[in-house]
Every structure is written in C-alpha cells, then in structure tokens.
Amino acid sequence: MPDHPAIPAVILAGGLARRMGGGDKPLQTIAGRSLLDRVIARLAPQCDGMVLNANGDPARFAAFGLPIVADSIAGFAGPLAGILAGLDWSAANRPDADWMLSAPADCPFLPRDLVTRLHQARVAQNARLAVAASAGQSHPVIGLWEVSLRDELRHALVAEDIRKVGRFIARYPLATVDWPADPIDPFFNANTMNDVAEAERLAELDEG
What backbone phi and psi angles, to 5 degrees, belong to 97? Predict the structure, then answer.
C-alpha cells in the first residue's frame, strides 16, 4: 500500500500539440503502447483514482476508461486550466482527498516513486505544493497540489490572466524534489515527432 494519504491524479491531455502539427499527442504510440497508456500504467499504482483533462470530443479517449473533464476556462488557457479542472473534479468527487497530483499525458517514463517522494518532501517542508525536477530543471506541471488552492487558482486565471504554472506556484511555500536523469530522464516528454522517435529508443532501456 502507498505510504501516503489518498491522492487522486489529473492527467493533462488538453494541449493543442502544435509542435506535432495538431491532433492528440497522448495517442501517439511508443513501442506498441500509446503515451497515455504508459502514463496511466505508471500512475495507477501510486494514485487513488485518475481523471483525464481533455478538450473537444471526449469519445476519442473513451477506451481508456477514465472520467474526462474539460477546461472550465475558455480559450485553451494552458496547463493551469487543466489543473484547475482536476482540482474542481477532486473537490466534487473526492472530498476525502486534500491533495491531487498533476502530470502531463506525454511523459511515458514517470518515476514509480513520484507520489511518495513528492508527499514526503511536502510534509518535511510544510509546503502547499511540491514539484518534480531533473537535470537541473524544474517540471512544475508535475506536482502535488493542495485542493483548497482551487479558488485562488481560478482567480489567477480569470482575473489576473496568469497562464504560466511557475508564476502561480511561486506565490506559495514550495517543495522541489529532484530525480536522476540517467539512464532515462523520468520526465522526458514527447513534444515533437523527433521526441517520439527518441522515446522509442528510450523505451528499450526502460523497465516497462
């Protein structure tokens, strides 16, 4: 059993995939499995339920069997809007959960100790947020969020037009947890078709 409280996750698939020419990036296949399938497999043992943030016709993701929530903020406001959708879903459907994990749908090699280490760091540092890092770079879209921050996040998006995750989280006590990037950066994300080709190579090094 996980050594942390019940923590649901929102998987962010709401992007426009401009660097891939549009379409649904999470459905790109790596070594016979879609990016989204790999993300779900990594998070399922760590999280107490998952929801998928996706805009447009939800039927294209129906086969994955997850609840699907669209952005409540119009105009493709970026990952913060997806995180807000997840926080609102958690508040409505998981009132027992005080925290939620966010992760993008294009990171197929997420660490298997992601939630445990983020939770431990948050507790140790009495932080309201915890984010992942690797190779000297923070990955603010991958982190633990206090569900009670959702109204402040909504205000930041609607009233302040804040779009960058880093700008919003800088307001709060933040724990950052670093993972090694060798032999695979666990936060490698497939943004372009070249990245997909590289992910095919990395999948051979990965444990599955």
Answer: -100, 120
